Amino acid sequence: MYMLSLWLSVLVSASFAADPVLRTATALGSFLSSQASIYLPGSSSFATATQRWQDWQPPHFSAAVEVATVKDVQRTVQLANLLNVPFLVVTGGHGSIGSLGKLDYGIEIWLRKLRDIKIAEDGQTARMGGGLVVKEITDALWAEGKQTVTGLCECVGMVGAMLGGGHGILQGRYGLIADNLLEAEVVLANGSLTTASAQSNPDLFWALRGAGHNFGIITSYRFKIYDVPRDNGWIVESYIYTEDKLDQVLTLTNNFTQGGKQPVEFLNWAYYLWLPDFDADHPVIQYTLLYEGTAEAAAPYASKYRALEPVNITSRTVSYLELPSLTGNGNADFGCQHGYSALQYPISLQSYNITAHRAAFALFEHYTRLYPGLNGSFVMNEGYALKGVQDVPADSTAYPDREGNLLVAPIMIFFNQTEEEHARQAGTEMRKVLLEGSGSEKLDAYVNYVSENETLQEMYGHEPWRVEKLQRLKRELDPKKRFNYFAPIW
Q1: Contacts of residue 464, Cβ cutoff 8 Å, sequence gap at least 6
Q2: Does the pTM of the predicted model rise above 0.85?
Q3: Which of 9, 27, 311, 467 is the most buried (most CB within 10 A)?
Q4: Pick from 249, 289, 253: which is nearest to 406 by CA?
Q5: What phi, psi does 53 have (nearest 5°)?
Q6: Cα angle 364-370-376, degrees, rounded to a multiple of 5
Q7: What is the distance in angstroms between the CA of the first residue and the CA of the last residue of the chain?
Q8: CA 189/CA 197 separation, integer angstroms
Q9: Hey, how many other C-beta atoms are within 10 angstroms of the C-beta on 340?
Q10: CA–CA separation, 443 vs 224, rounded Å?
Q11: How do residues 143-184 score in pLDDT, each as one tens digit?
């Protein structure tokens, strides 16, 4: 009866709007909850709903549906299917892969109203809405003495990060974001609602954790949470090194991390970027040591980095909530701003090959000198502990890479589209020398960071069974390829 009513609504709306997206929006008006909204181009609400982290290859929407209930999601998908209108689910708008730009005249399904958080009575899990961003989760849990694995960037949608695996500060203790998922309420490509867990739809549950953008819309999920340790604190020391110290800094980090086998308390971040206040002639290394514990416990690490004579040192003891802003990932920082284009070239590594990184640093300097329009770019090196990640069996999720403790990515920023090819050339060459230095011919590229041209194997794993299983599930669960705009499986 409901589908018949939907068809009749479509037929009536056809007389008012020739554009299938406008027909869909018109028809949806009578079937959504009273809290849902439909926004059309030209309105400030549409601009807010469709704003993205960066401007390169954006999806093009003709309507945005701000859903408020699971039924709203289902009905939007069902009607879009009836009219063969493409759709894309959005929370934080941080997806940056070029395949998003293939969506033309589609519907955005905006999940931001699905933001409930309810902690279970036993305090070990929480039920969370699919529209939450990272800061909302960390703040809500912290107020109850709890924490969990999230991405570091405060404005990123939690589900989007989780669907691609999800790296986080606490992964050394508790695994990836995806490893903490216990159950998900999922709207499938045909608009039906199902539950995915280890007991219910286990193949879908497997796929959601690492390749999930291809398989459904998570409207809510049950997730592991943890007690904040008593007297918990983090030591954050940031150092600025001139380029002549690069080899020493990376060698020291290799000695500490031993390919990801460092203590779970120790993490490190390094950026290669231009900071003319410290060196007007060359890029510098901005290196941040993160240590969960006391200053005394961190001293064996911090003292060695200080001994390399950085040109600037800042040191603080902070809570977990302050880490994003101190690593440039807060709401007020670059990663949450808008108005530029970015091409990213991620590569997963187990250690720093000093020669290769020296070559990549030189390429970064060369291209940003040659093309000043790229001089807001940087090379990001995220160094994670792996114990919690490797405690999870490698074949138990679709996430393929549990060996890399360094997530490295040249991120080429530009404001003028004439710089796109220069950015592409620079990022491609830097990643090439890093791959050559890794000792492997096979690129592992973190799917949440990719921009373009990565193969299915590079994003989803080189073991043949992984892509074969994903392709089989795609044919079963999404035969019409409705979820086809973020790192699509074909």
Answers
A1: none
A2: yes
A3: 27
A4: 253
A5: -60, -40
A6: 55
A7: 34
A8: 18
A9: 15
A10: 31
A11: 999 999 999 999 999 999 999 999 999 999 999 999 999 999
